[in-house]
Amino acid sequence: PKKPQHFSALTKAEDIKRLLSSMAAYQGSPVVRCALWFSLYTLGRPGEVRRAEWSEIDLDKAVWEIAEEKMKKRRPHAIPLSCQTVALLEELRPLTGRWRYVFPSARMDGRPMSENAVRAALRSMGFSNEEMTAHGFRSLGSTALNTLGYRADVIEAALAHIQGGVRGIYNRSDYWEERRAMMQGWADWLDGLVAHGDSLPWLHA
Three-state SS across 56-96? Predict the structure, then answer.
């Protein structure tokens, strides 16, 4: 059997706060900066984030709908967007809205952002591969949300994890309303970790 792969991630509140402060101070590409925040707010897989398309996102309904062919388990998945995520995308849209991808390649050649872009940004902020990875945003979020007391089933649904066994066959609920409340609570909790204010800068830190 294939051994599970564990991705490095920060899980303590003080380390997460350090990550947020570093992301806010990041002086690189504004597209990469937004991809960092988007990854953290949505907890999407790195490949799903990189290949996110504007056509998949409804800002009025605050939802990101991902087609099954893009998903690891080949099932369509929808992610409710917090107010913070919607604001982030509204600021980003003038920069990349004319392109297919929300986070296009820096070469503007029709391709999505490089899979190394977020990793390189994390390294430039001083986080080693042993501390934090692009995929680590999901581990960070899962650990924090469980610690904050959200229901495990709701967290697993938010991460698009499919339950095994008989329960996984019969439990088809996606806990949408709970997930929407949780993702907003998650974004609010992250904002609360940042000193000197209750909101986070995105493009203009």
Answer: HEECCCCEEEECHHHCCCCCCEEEECCHHHHHHHHHHHHHH
Nearest alpha-carbon partner for 178 in 150, 200, 203? 150
- Structural contact between residues 38 and 161, judged by C-beta atoms closer than 8 angstroms: no
Please name which of 166, 178, 139 lies closest in space to residue 12, comparing C-alpha atoms: 139
Dist CA 54 CA 96 (whole Å): 9
Q: Where are the beta strands (DSSP E) in 41-167?
A: 57-58, 63-66, 77-80
pLDDT tens across 169-189, in order?
A: 334 458 999 999 999 999 999
**121 vs 23: CA distance, rounded Å:** 9
Our measurement of the distance from residue 4's CA atom to the centroid of its chain's CA atoms, rounded to an integer in Å, reads 21
User: How far is residue 170's CA from residue 190's CA, in Å, rounded to a whole number?
Assistant: 34
Q: Which residues are designated catalytic?
A: 45, 72, 135, 138, 161, 170
What pTM value is reported for the model?
0.86
Torsion of CA 42, 43, 45, 47, to 10 degrees: 40
Average pLDDT, the chain: 85
Sequence-separated (6 or more) residues with CB below 8 Å from residue 77: 65, 66, 71, 160
